[in-house]
Design goal:
Layout lengths: L13 E5 L12 E5 H10 L2 H7 L3 H6 L1 H10 L21
Antiparallel strand pairs: 1-2
Helix pairs in contact: 1-4
Bound molecules: zinc ion (ZN) (2 copies).
């Protein structure tokens, strides 16, 4: 159990995220410890190519419009509860 570098919740179970995706040459590059919902959300929203082109630091991820909205929401969720991200209704349609 550790702290998520994106939403700052703790204690949470974390997974290792390659800030530069491995597929884009980041195998030995910097990593971040992210809770499972944050990690899933990044990869649900962006392809590895998009991540490699503009989302390779924690602050860039935090500044991203869609992710910052997700972070606001997840900060209100209790850290220990394991959540399942529902594909059907967690992302509202773009207005
Ligand atoms: Zn998180
Ligand atoms: Zn990742």
């Amino acid at each position: 159990m550790a702290k998520c570098e994106l939403c700052d919740r703790e204690p949470v179970e974390t997974t290792v995220h390659h800030l530069l995706p491995k597929e884009e040459g980041g195998t030995f590059g910097p990593t971040a410890n992210l809770c499972i919902p944050c990690h899933k959300q990044i990869h649900a929203l962006y392809t590895n190519t998009e991540i490699a082109s503009r989302l390779t630091t924690i602050s860039q991820l935090k500044d991203d419009d869609q992710l910052s909205r997700f972070i606001k929401w997840i900060r209100k969720q209790p850290p220990t509860k394991l959540m399942k991200i529902k594909k059907s209704n967690d992302r509202k349609r773009k207005r």
